[in-house]
Every structure is written in structure tokens, then in C-alpha cells.
Amino acid sequence: MSVTPVVAQESKHRWWVLATVALAQLMVVLDATIVNIAMPSAQADLGFSDNDRQWVVTAYALAFGSLLLLGGRLADMFGRRRMFLIGLVGFALASALGGASQSFSMLVGARALQGAFAAVLAPAALSVLTTTFTLPKERARAFGVFGAIAGMGGAIGLMLGGYLTENFNWRWNLYVNVIIAAIAFVAGTMLLSKVVVRHHNQLDLSSILLASGGLFLLVFGFSQAEPKGWSSPEVWGSLAASVVLLVGFVLRQRTSEFPLLPLSIVQDRDRGASFLAILVAGSGMFGVFLFLTYYLQLTLGYSPVQTGTAFLPMIVFIVITAQVQNNLLVPRFGPKVVVPIGMALGASAMLVFTTLVAGSPYWHVLIGLILMGIGMGSIMPPSFQAATLGVPRSSAGAASAMVSTSQQVGGAIGTAVLNTIAATAAAAYVSDHLPATPDVVAAGAIHSFSVAYSWSAGIFVLGAIVTASLFRTRADRAARLEAAAQAAPATVSASDASSDDDAPVLAH
Fold it and tell me: What single string gives the DSSP state of each residue in 252-281?
């Protein structure tokens, strides 16, 4: 029997919708790194200590990571357009508050507020994309753009942060979000569908507390590993408590009438593999953004603007690769082939970086950046698309939140683990080459970067093995989608489809 899959009514302005949500996503992603460039200037202006400065970054990560699942469910409950616009306004106000900060505590509070509204904005943006693009070819193209932004946002943050810090002042690294959010808000008001289909207008308080508390302690525990040490009660106590709370959260989702995260979303092999791929990529690529930034500035003497510009080739190759992979190679070979290859390329890039020395020319760095760009362009867009494929529209926000949660938790783990490994390697090198002259300390730093790159390469290799094992074959996926299509109504009119938010998004 011939069956027509259920599809949503396509927006006449869907490509402008893509541009709008992509702009919002870029703002959220780049904000994780743009402030790093401004940190020395902000520290000198507001007078906070080296020990305190981590909280400018950690406050954003804690609020963002711990509230994502709640933000995703709110988008499903109250409408994606509404939560998208609320997220934009809140993020802009928090950014303005941060830019106007007159004290360290005011800046940290504003960063936490940014993270909270980012947790509302990010899932809403991805779920808008998920429900707007349902035709396979257009969906592939749209997710190629969106996934590329997720992969290159950190590098753009470094570029933009360097430019603003050198030519204006550190406050504009926050004020710039007001401009971006204003453009996205005007566009979103005009373009996003005003039809709202609400689902499950109740929240399970116990699920919220378990999820938010567990994710908060998870991110907090990893964030304290480098300054406090892994043996600190703040670290292992937080991580142990997070495991208890997250296990309790999973158990609660099995019985809750209104689950915050329907377990069917993560139990699907393709979606589970996608979440893991995003987590691994987020962990591994911090070897680029964190240590390569240090290398370029401290070893090669690059200015902030030069450092940011140095990452431009990686951005270009992410954009090109994302479109080629999602439009040509993923439809032909599937994520089971493309994503592991991307992981292998990421590992190769890290191995190139391990060979950097004090006098390495830029072309040496460039080889690694190109490999990394192709790798990330092969990992992120297919994983973003597979992570939201086949999800009922009533749970699109929850699935989108899991995507952002995977990326955020991966970044927290990568930062903590690689930072600790690098610090340990640097200390060991200096102790083995006493006296600790400036040249020895500088050599120890380069050695520590190389060790961190090696571990990062191992993370990517592990990701390649896991994703190659978990992703379904194209034949298996096609059979499952055919079965789902046959189980759906034979035909659905465009007007009916546009309001049928329980219908799964079917593609590929």
C-alpha cells in the first residue's frame, strides 16, 4: 500500500526562518568563548582575582547546562515561537546588564542570567528548525547550516571577541548580543508561525528538581576539577551526587505522567548515537579552542585579533563540509559512515597539533585546522539531524534540549579533563628540568599542550568506535521509517498537518 508520510505545512519564508534561528544559535554558542578573550581586560577593570575569574565562564555554563531540559519542555508546552522570543529578550537584557557591570558579582550574576535564558532559547531554536523543515533535501540543507554553526560558533566567538576587545573594550563582547538579539527578535516576530499547539500543560516538579540539580552538580563538579583538584570533596562529592540525582531522574521519567524527557527519545539507537557524537565532539574539540588559543598567543605572540583570524580556515571548511556531507554523502552513506570518518579526521587534527613546537610556522597549524574543520563538518550536522529525526512534534523541544545538553556537558567534561591533564603534564615537565627558568616553563607549556592534544585524539578515536557501532545501517533505518509511515494515516491535508504536532518528522 502506498503511504504518504505526515508532513508539516511548509513555511513560505522557511529559509528566512533558518537564518533567524541560526543567528540566535550563533549568539548562544559564541558566548561560551567570546568572553574568554575579554577576560584580562574585564579583570583589570573590575579588579577580581585570578581565582575568581573562572566564575565568569562557569556561571554561564552552570545555568545553561542545568536548565536545558526544562527549557526544552517549556517550548513544547507553551509554543516554540513564544519561548524563542522570550529567550531572545531575556538574553539581550542579561547581556546588557553584564556589559554595564560595575562589580564582579554583578558580572557573574548577569552571566548566570544569560545562561538561564540561553537554556530557553537554544531548544526553542532547534525545535523550530525541526518542525519547519520536513522534506528530506531541504531538511539536510537546513541542518547542514545549523550544525555548521554549532561547530564553528566557538571559533567565531574568538574572532569577534578579539576584534571587539582591541578596537572597543571588553564590555562590547556582551553588548554585541543586544544587537544580534534585536535583529533575531524582529525577524522572529514577523516570520515564525503564530499557530500554537500546546502539549502536556503540566510540569513534574520532581523531574525538574532531579534533572536540574543533577546537571548543575555534573557541570559544577567538572568545572572545579582544575582549580580544586580531582581529590577535592567539591569535585568528587558533586559528581557522585549528580549521578544519584540523574539516576533518580531516569527512574522518575519511567513513571511520570508528564515526563520532562520522554525516554523513547534517548532509547532510539540513532538518536542515542547522535547525542554521544555531539558530546564527544564537544569534549574533544576543546583541545583546539583552549590550548591552541594559548599556543598562538603565548608561544607565537599573536594578538587577540590575529588569534581569532587564525581560526578562519577551520570555519570555512566546516561550512563547506557541512553542506557537502548533509546534501551528498549522508543521504548516500548515512551517519554510520560519515560521523566516524569525521571523528577520525578530528583525531588526525589533534595528532598534527601534537607536533607543534615553539618555532612552528602557521602553515603547520593550518593543516590541523583544515582537518578539524572537515571533521567537525562531518560530525555535527548529521548528528544534529539524526538526533531530532522521527521525534513527535510534541517532544521536539525535549529532543532539541538533549542536543544542547550533550554539547554543553561535553564541553564541561573536555575543559575539566584536558585542563587537568595539561596542568599535570606541565608541572611534571618543569620538575624534571629544574631550575625552572622562563625557557623551561615555556617548553613545559608546549609539552602540556601536546599531551592534551594526544588525549583529545584518543577521545575522538573512542567516538569513532562508539558511533560506528551504534548508528543503524541505511537499510535498517529505511525499513523502520517505512513501518512508521505505514502506521501513520494514509494522507493528511496540509491544513491538518500544520496543526498535528504529534506526527513524527519523517525524512531519509
Answer: HHHH-SS-SS-HHHHHSHHHHHHHHHHHHH
CA distances to 151, 180, 243, 320, 450 from 26, in Å: 10, 9, 31, 17, 30
Model pTM above 0.70:
yes
| Rg (alpha carbons) of the chain, rounded to whole number | 22
Tell me the fold of 14-203+258-485: Growth Hormone; Chain: A; (1.20.1250)
- What would the pLDDT profile of 250-264 be if each residue is shown by its tens digit? 999 999 888 899 998
Q: Cα 224 vs. chain centroid, distance in angstroms?
A: 20
Q: How far is CA 442 from CA 356, 434, 435, 455, in A?
A: 13, 13, 13, 20
Q: How do residues 361-411 score in pLDDT, each as one tens digit?
A: 999 999 999 999 999 999 999 999 899 888 888 788 899 999 989 988 888
Residues of the chain with CATH 1.20.1250.20: 14-203+258-485
What DSSP string runs through 287-348?
Answer: IIIIIIHHIIIIIS---HHHHHHHTHHHHHHHHHHHHHIIIIIHHHH-HHHHHHHHHHHHHH
Q: Are 69 and 215 in contact (CB under 8 A)?
A: yes
Query: pLDDT by residue (tens digit) across 34-64?
Result: 887 788 789 889 998 867 877 888 899 889 9
